[in-house]
Amino acid sequence: MTDATTDMLEGACHCGAVRFRVRLKGGVAEARRCNCSYCSLRGAVALSADLNDLELIAGEDRLATYRFNTGKAEHHFCTNCGIYTHHRRRSNGSEYGVNAACLGISPFDFAEVPVMDGMNHPSDVGVDRQIGILRFIAER
């Protein structure tokens, strides 16, 4: 795993129809999960990127967007394979959350991932807080 924030990384959905380049903000050190109803079902590890640091290079016509609750967050996914590629954050509209797996980084590559309290969203309660840590311990 790279932790460099200056490198442009290439990513794609499962079928490859949607492809993008991204420069991560904070590298893999910014990895996180969320416990809101949508993210809990999706199960992805999200990495951070500024809006201008993600460039779609193919498949923009294959992306669909899902919004719920306040409608501020924009969750993008491939209409062909259904894989979530990235989302515009409700908590910080100038950032994307990027699916680490679309960059070839398995959720199981992370020993620990902070879990943020999306059920009590920071835009609603005024506090951005971590509520736990998701750990992967490989059995030998």
List keywords for this structure.
Metal Binding Protein, Guanine Nucleotide Exchange Factor, Chain A, globular, single chain, 2 helices, 11 strands, mainly beta, 3-stranded antiparallel sheet, 140 residues
Question: How does this model look, in words?
Answer:
There is one protein chain. With about 140 residues, the protein is mostly beta strands. It has one domain (about 10-135): Metal Binding Protein, Guanine Nucleotide Exchange Factor, Chain A. Helix content is about 5%, strand content about 35%. The chain has two helices and eleven strands. It has a five-stranded antiparallel β-sheet with strand order 4-9-8-7-6, with no helix packed on it. It has a three-stranded antiparallel β-sheet with strand order 1-2-5, with no helix packed on it. The longest helix has 6 residues, at about 35-40. The protein is globular, with a radius of gyration of 14 Å. The two termini are about 20 Å apart. About 30% of the residues are buried.
Count, helices: 2
Could you estimate the helical fraction of the residues in percent?
under 10%
Give the overall pLDDT as a whole number.
91
What is the first-to-last residue Cα distance?
21 Å
Q: Specify the overall morphology.
A: globular
Poorly predicted regions are none
Task: Going across the biggest sheet, name each strand in turn.
Answer: 4-9-8-7-6
Strand content: 35-45%
Rg measurement, Å: 14 Å
Order of helices and strands: EEEHEEEEEEEHE
The overall strand count is 11
CATH class: Mainly Beta
CATH architecture heading = Beta Complex
Main sheet makeup: 5 strands, antiparallel
> From the helix content, strand content and strand pairing, which structural class follows?
mainly beta
